[in-house]
Amino acid sequence: MLSLQKYLTAASLFVLGIGSPLPLDPIGSGLHGNQGAHVVNTTATPETFKTLVAQNGASAVVTSATGLSYYDPNFNDGTSGKSNPSSYTCYSGPASSFPPKSQWMNFAAMFNLNQQDSLVPVGDSGPEQGAIYNAIVSVSKASKVDARVILAVIIQETHTLTALIFTKSTGNVRVPCTNNGVENCGLMQSYDAADQSYDPNNMQASITQMVIDGTQGTAAGPGLVQWFNDNSQTNGPTGGNVYKVVRGYNSGSIDQNNLSDGVGSTNSYVSDIANRLLGWNGYGNGAGPCGF
Questions:
Q1: Which terminus of the chain, N or C, has fewer Cβ atoms within 10 Å?
Q2: pTM: predicted TM-score of the whole model, two decimal places
Q3: Is residue 252 a contact partner of residue 58, using CB atoms and an 8 Å limit?
Q4: What does the mean pLDDT of the chain come to?
Q5: How far apart are CA 127 and CA 187, in angstroms?
Q6: Within a 13 Å sphere around the CA of 182, how many CA atoms are in the beta-carbon half?
Q7: Handedness of CA 107, 152, 129, 208 (dihedral sign)
Q8: What does R_g of the chain's alpha carbons equal in angstroms?
């Protein structure tokens, strides 16, 4: 697949190429169901678990100093990624056990990697791929959430059935809604975003709205920004740490001592996100051997 960056213009971005058949996902990929936002836990819980109260995230921006430290507006900052993109490192324990931002792949290379290994195989058209890129760029700038984090969550949250009925995280704009106690729809399986699905007749706007909902939140519940900010409607579960943020986004609760405890959700979620930020393409054994 030709590099996406060659076809970026000031007005819009389009990618040459058409979808090809989805490759079969190997057994033991470490990719699981039970993704998406879960019901926000507002009841009393043990001290190791922190919870977040739902809120309206319209036009929300990361404001915490720690949260902003994970944001980089330069899409070329970062590493070139893994020498073997299918390799996977098992991460567990507290947030300090997860890789620092200095090891993350740069966004331009990360998008190109996932474009080749996820967006094209699932059949997202060139203009659809461009619309995803445009949405990530615009929402990242507006929200001050790093574009790499948004992309990693998109790839993690979208699944497509293969011929063997295994799932592969893909960035599929047509991903169906799921329900883990709350209806989650769209590219980021956003909190109670049932009215936001892909509209091919309004491609860019519908894709951008899906990214806004997952990043900046919905009227019904939090997005990434709310988890970063620990604002007055929260009891401070993340301290702005990105790995606690994505744990909370997926689970609705956080085991501060082990971010690979899904608290009823996907155990490998945070480890998967960390590996995607380092340049994992979603193939290989993934978290299968980790014992999560």
A1: N
A2: 0.78
A3: no
A4: 74
A5: 16
A6: 22
A7: negative
A8: 17
Q: Would you state the structure tokens that stand for residue 13, as one six-digit string?
A: 């971005």
Q: Other CB atoms closer than 10 Å to residue 11's CB: what's the count?
A: 6
- pLDDT tens digits for 44-74? 333 333 334 444 455 899 999 999 999 999 9
| 125's tokens | 């058209």
Structure tokens at 241: 């740490």
Q: Which residues contact 283 (CB under 8 A, 6 or more apart)?
A: 25, 26, 29, 85, 86, 117
CA-CA distance, 225 to 67, in Å (whole number)?
A: 9
What is the C-alpha to C-alpha distance for residues 190 and 218, in angstroms, rounded to an integer? 8
In sequence order, the 6+-apart residues with CB closer than 8 A to the CB of 205 are 199
* Burial of residue 106, with CB atoms counted within 10 A of its CB: 0-12 exposed, 13-18 middle, 19 or more buried: buried
Give the Cα separation of 87 and 99 in Å (integer).
15
Query: Tens of pLDDT along 112-140?
Result: 998 876 665 555 677 888 888 999 999 99
CA torsion angle for 188, 193, 194, 199 (degrees, to 10)? -60
- CA of 92: how far to CAs of 65, 267, 281, 285, in Å? 25, 9, 20, 17
